[in-house]
Amino acid sequence: MSKNYEEILPEGYNEIFHIDAKEKKTGLILTLFSLILTLIPLAILLPIYFCTKKFEFEFSYRTSLYLLGLAVAMILYMVLHELVHGIAYKALTKQKLTFGISWSCAYCGVPNIYVYRKASMIALIAPFTVFGLLFGGLVIWFYFLDGTLFLLMSLLFSIHVGGCIGDLYMFTLFLFKYKDKTLLMRDTGPEQFLYQTTE
User: Fold this and answer.
1) Which of 39, 51, 95, 110 is least crowded, fewest Cβ atoms below 10 Å from its Cβ?
2) What is the number of alpha carbons within 13 Å of residue 2 lying toward its C-beta?
3) How many angstroms separate the Cα of 90 from the Cα of each of 17, 86, 107, 183, 191?
4) What 3-state DSSP class applies to 131?
5) Could you report the per-residue pLDDT of 115-173, keeping only the tens digit for each?
């Protein structure tokens, strides 16, 4: 098994990138792009439904339960999203995790170690993949089952996609810009530091 992390930053490594989601400007930019990203799935899913199905909305006791369920699901999802990060990090490093929430994000990190690129990418993309498949499957299922549930699940799926903006941003950087396999990331949760060897 290849090593997934270093306990101490090796000699010859220098910081090449830093982002802090708690910093006001960064947090606002991520929030703006999160809203844009949230709208994209809705802009695709809603026209598909309304062009192919006849939807009749009637506010009822059942609808109010659905809305309550959506509110609970959104809170539960936020917790589970960070737990999936944690499960991935724990499986890859066996190190102590840190969880928290700030004005701009909820987070999970492993602040006391330096994680290699491949393991970092796995931990970053894990929630997007897990919940993308789960919520996407439910969207398809509810399309044939219940119009109200389809709309609510489409909203939850879209919130999930938008809520992954920070993870997707870092994953994209790894994928297209920082391709060195020896790259290390220190992830405190709201902050990510990237280090690259000068050798």
Assistant:
1) 51
2) 8
3) 24, 6, 15, 19, 18
4) helix
5) 999 999 999 999 999 999 999 999 999 999 888 889 999 999 999 999 999 999 999 99
Burial class of residue 147, CB neighbours in 10 A (0-12, 13-18, 19+): middle
CB 154 within 8 A of CB 82: no
Provide the pLDDT confidence category of residue 104 given band limits of 50, 70 and 90. Answer: confident
Angstrom distance (rounded) from CA 4 to CA 157: 31
* Contact (Cβ atoms closer than 8 angstroms) between residue 195 and residue 14: yes
With a CB cutoff of 8 Å and minimum separation 6, the contacts of 199 are 12
Place of tokens 């690259």: 196
